[in-house]
Design a protein that fits this description.
The complex is a heterodimer of chains A (575) and B (349). Chain A is α/β, with parallel strands linked by helices. Helices cover 35% and strands 24% of the residues of chain A. In chain B, strands 1, 3, 12, 13, 14, 15, 16, 17, 18, 19, 20 and 21 form a 12-stranded mixed β-sheet that branches. A 5-stranded antiparallel β-sheet of chain B has the order 27-26-23-22-28, with no helix packed on it. Chain B has a 4-stranded antiparallel β-sheet with strand order 5-10-9-6. The relative contact order of chain B is 0.16. Classes of the chains: A alpha/beta (575), B mainly beta (349).
Chain lengths: 575, 349
């Protein structure tokens, strides 16, 4: 740890289109701690057109809260930290702005290069405008129209394994060069080639027009092997350079940073992969979910392998798409009170105009909770579709975003997550109240200690350890008995019935030993733990939860029965 | 915290950037006076092209022959049938423009034509003077007058004399209120829930509708109308905010424009503009919520009501649904007070 003392005081920025958030870390008692966080509205656009204004406001607040001086009389960051406690040792920067940069991808076969390109793009914050495979049914003039009308910032070309197809790729390049010749130089997109590396020299030799072409390792060097990392790194570089041009103040802030700024997608993906390897348990799969004003982010890490899914639809943006995708009937299925279609319609249409309104009543909050379930479930399905090799079971699920951190009681947040993710076996749910995960991913690029120490601290809280039990018994029939022995020796026994969700009272951090005795035939997966001899349970904000509702969660068709059941489940978790 | 501002001002300078992305032809000059429906630029957001390989079409031997056969240059506007290239052989052949087009590029033996059928007009949107041209982007327009910004519009522009069908902001707009003498006017109404009312408004015809709101089921109907519709509150039956109501009522019988053409992604809003011959100041686009500010509640049981901020309540307030948030204590005109989350307030200054 001593070699990192030069970076004792670290200020991290997390900036998206709407919020500028600051995190101040320092060493307290030999370990890194989160000292304070503040936030301000992002000022990237009119009337400020410079993100530094938002950063300065947030710095003012953090100075007021902590009493520390971080900027000098000329509003420059004081780097390094001074003996009087002022200043910081380094700055880290992660950014959102999803869909701010756009791309058109070009590849060959749908099932090979195009699939890999889709997965690559899903791991970035780029907006995918169109895809051109080969052979392409569209005429060259149609593709020319596409480029001129859509103004992509980056063209990504893949195709051909190493030693594989070359003619088809060179033909694609020829068509691309023809199109770019007919676009004004200042409007031409950049090109990234990530296909058959055997043709790189040919591409360079034929680039008489000096188009801006860069290369990265083939994303599909063989049919059976996919390698997205080098391409992702190139896209990250491109993204940083573009953001410096497009976002006022970005370059200046980047110049203060110890290492280049990282897109939130990349930083989050890095952390979830890291977390999947941190645990001693084999086959650990971590899922991170964030719903914020910019969109909905899902990041998975399984034994170090990543998957990512982002959409610009959330509870605060592109509400119109929610209205199109989720009819009122579907939303009503998850609402535990009697609300009319009309009320849902009014609320969502109102929200399409005022996306940042807060739910004012129980029924409005119920509508948002129902929508959150649908959004998360839908995004998980998309993620599994894009990443078919991803194991469909997560042992750790971390949630972040204003909706879960500030709006919902912990029990309600947990219920939304359980209903949308419907996990099996044993799953730990965590809440990242501060939205710190992507920031830790950024800092990890130059400081490995801080992320580990913060993960071990209270920055991320355990919501609950959840045990999901499957059984074919009828609804209401007792299916198992849990005997709990607390650390102080007291004991408790709980009978769990099919179709119920039960909260075992355990304070956050408190541990107990539980023996599970099946009363009917049940299916459970405790990852090699001996459930009948005793497993150690750890309490979270919602204790420990046994979910015996079944999978998929069955909801009665009858409206009154459904509302009653949903209310019962909600009340059971609150108690 | 910065809430959304919906300017509702009796006199202000109105400066608007009208810009297009992609290609376009600017049609105005600095100093030119424009009306709301004047086209300030023709834009080509969905350009289509036609590629003619002259060497192939004329059966020529090489690129040089093809180049010498081409009889047009870049930028030429061609009518359908115009000869683009002609061979000099005994049996001379010609290549004609397939449609009205512009010569976009001549590249080797290929002529790329930009098809001219798809231009979209960029309208001024209000009576104004062109104060600046933005090359390859558009222009800046300016005027002074009354400005009332709405929350939603059906992407049409209209102009007429402002008349009111309502005496109170809570009144609904119904068919019975649409009298013949409103024909040709911009009509101020309340909440509308009946598609027949909208149909009658179109048939009268009116020149536009300023409403507090409509039922969401009527959205499709408004997009089919030929007249502009602007909503000042939204999609539920809340009254028009008092500030806008009083301002517009006091400007009845004045020449009024509804510009319901707006791009939400650029943070534009639909607007009601009434030109006034007095110089105003540019409104602030950066207002922080503070005591004394005029606001409108945009959610909950006080939705649509105008209020003044008494103070920002210290600390987080627990709403009835358990959410903790920062609230303001606001005073309504009838001296009623309420605690409203800052997120549920719009600024009306």
């Amino acid at each position: 740890m001593s070699e990192n003392i030069e970076f004792a005081t670290i200020l991290a920025l997390k900036i998206d289109k709407f919020r500028t958030k600051l995190f101040l870390f320092d060493i307290v008692g030999e370990k890194y701690r989160l000292i304070a966080t503040t936030e301000a509205e992002t000022t990237a656009f009119h009337p400020f057109n410079d993100i530094r204004e938002g950063v300065m406001r947030a710095i003012d607040r953090i100075q007021n809260v902590t009493g520390r001086i971080l900027i000098d009389g000329e509003s420059n960051l004081i780097i390094p930290s001074q003996s009087n406690g002022s200043g910081i040792d380094c700055l880290a920067f992660t950014y959102g702005f999803i869909n701010h940069l756009s791309t058109i991808t070009m590849g060959l076969l749908e099932s090979v290069s195009m699939d890999s390109l889709n997965r690559l793009i899903s791991m970035t914050q780029l907006k995918l405008l169109d895809q051109i495979s080969s052979p392409n049914p569209r005429k060259v003039e149609e593709i020319l129209s596409l480029f001129i009308n859509l103004h992509p910032n980056l063209i990504i070309i893949a195709g051909g394994t190493d030693q594989g197809a070359s003619k088809a790729i060179l033909k694609q390049m020829e068509m691309l060069r023809f199109i770019l010749r007919n676009i004004q130089p200042e409007k031409r997109p950049e090109i990234l080639f990530i296909g058959n590396n055997q043709v790189q020299q040919d591409i360079l030799n034929s680039n008489k027009e000096n188009f801006n072409i860069s290369f990265a390792a083939n994303i599909r060097p063989s049919i059976d092997y996919e390698n997205l990392t080098p391409a992702l790194e190139k896209i990250e570089q491109f993204s940083n350079e573009s953001m410096k041009q497009k976002i006022g103040g970005f370059q200046d802030l980047a110049s203060y940073c110890i290492s280049p700024p990282i897109p939130i997608s990349h930083a989050t993906s890095y952390m979830t992969r890291f977390l999947s390897r941190l645990n001693n348990e084999p086959n650990t799969c971590v899922l991170f979910i964030e719903i914020n004003r910019e969109g909905t982010f899902l990041s998975a890490g399984c034994n170090g392998k990543p998957a990512f899914q982002v959409t610009d639809v959330s509870l605060n943006c592109n509400i119109q798409q929610l209205l199109d995708n989720y009819p009122a009937k579907e939303i009503l299925r998850w609402i535990n009170s009697e609300i009319s279609d009309e009320e849902i319609k009014f609320y969502l249409w109102n929200k399409s105009i005022h996306p940042n309104i807060l739910p004012d009543s129980d029924s409005q909050l119920d509508i948002e909770m129902a929508l959150a379930r649908l959004i998360i479930k839908n995004q998980i399905q998309k993620m599994f579709h894009n990443w078919p090799d991803l194991p469909q079971k997560f042992n750790q699920i971390i949630v972040s975003g204003e909706f879960f951190s500030n709006y919902l009681r912990p029990a309600d947040g947990l219920l939304v997550l359980l209903d949308s993710t419907q996990p099996g076996g044993m799953t730990k749910f965590y809440i990242d109240r501060h939205g710190i995960i992507p920031v830790l991913g950024t800092i990890a690029t130059f400081n490995k200690f801080l992320p580990v120490q913060l993960i071990e601290s209270t920055a991320i809280s355990l919501l609950a350890q959840v045990i999901s039990i499957m059984s074919i018994a009828k609804f209401g029939i007792p299916i198992l008995s849990i005997s709990i022995e607390y650390e102080d020796g007291t004991k408790n026994e709980i009978i769990v019935t099919k179709g119920s969700i039960v909260s075992i009272p355990l304070s956050p951090g408190q541990k107990a030993k539980a023996r599970i005795t099946p009363l009917k035939k049940i299916e459970y997966d405790f990852a090699d733990r001996d459930a009948e001899n005793g497993i150690i349970l750890q309490g979270g904000l919602c204790g420990v939860v046994i979910d015996a509702r079944g999978r998929p969660i069955p909801l009665p068709k009858n409206e009154l029965q459904r509302i009653k059941l949903l209310q019962q489940w909600r009340n059971n978790l609150k108690n | 915290m910065n809430s959304t501002i919906y300017h509702t001002l009796a006199l202000t300078k109105i400066r608007r950037k009208r810009i297009f992305s992609g290609d376009g032809d600017i049609l105005v000059k600095v100093g030119q006076k424009v009306s709301p429906t004047d086209v300030i630029a023709n834009t080509y957001p969905n350009q289509k092209f036609s590629i003619l390989n002259i060497k192939k079409l004329l059966n020529l031997n090489n690129t040089e022959e093809a180049r010498s056969a081409i009889d047009v240059k870049i930028g030429d506007h061609l009518k359908a049938g115009t000869i683009i290239a002609k061979s000099q052989n005994v049996f001379s052949k010609a290549v004609q423009a397939p449609v009205d087009s512009e010569v976009f590029v001549i590249n080797g033996s290929q002529v790329i034509l930009r098809i001219l059928t798809d231009s979209e007009p960029l309208y001024a949107g209000f009576e104004a003077i062109v104060t600046e041209l933005l090359p390859e982007q558009g222009a800046i327009l300016e005027n002074n007058g009354v400005l009332v910004q709405g929350v939603w519009g059906n992407q049409i522009i209209g102009r007429g004399l402002l008349l009111s069908s309502i005496d109170f902001p809570e009144q609904e707009l119904t068919k019975n209120q649409l009298k013949i003498h409103f024909r040709g006017s911009i009509l101020l109404g309340g909440y509308c829930r009946d598609p027949e009312t909208l149909k009658l408004a179109s048939d009268l015809p009116l020149k536009g509708l300023i409403l507090s709101g409509i039922h969401p089921d009527l959205i499709t109907d408004t997009y089919k109308m030929q007249i502009p519709v602007i909503l000042l509150e939204g999609f539920s039956p809340s009254p028009m905010n008092l500030r806008a109501f009083n301002l517009l009522k006091s400007n009845e019988k004045r020449d009024t424009t509804i510009n319901a053409v707006y791009n939400k992604e650029l943070d534009e809003k639909p607007e009601v503009i009434i030109p006034v011959g007095t110089e105003g100041l540019l409104p602030s686009e950066n207002i922080t919520i503070k005591p004394g500010l005029v606001v409108r509640v945009n959610n909950g049981k006080h939705r649509g009501r105008t209020a003044n901020i008494e103070r920002i309540i210290r600390g987080m307030v627990n709403l009835e649904n358990g959410i903790k948030t920062i609230c303001a204590l606001v005073n309504f005109s009838d001296e009623e007070q309420a605690r409203i989350p800052l997120a549920n307030l719009d600024i009306l200054e």
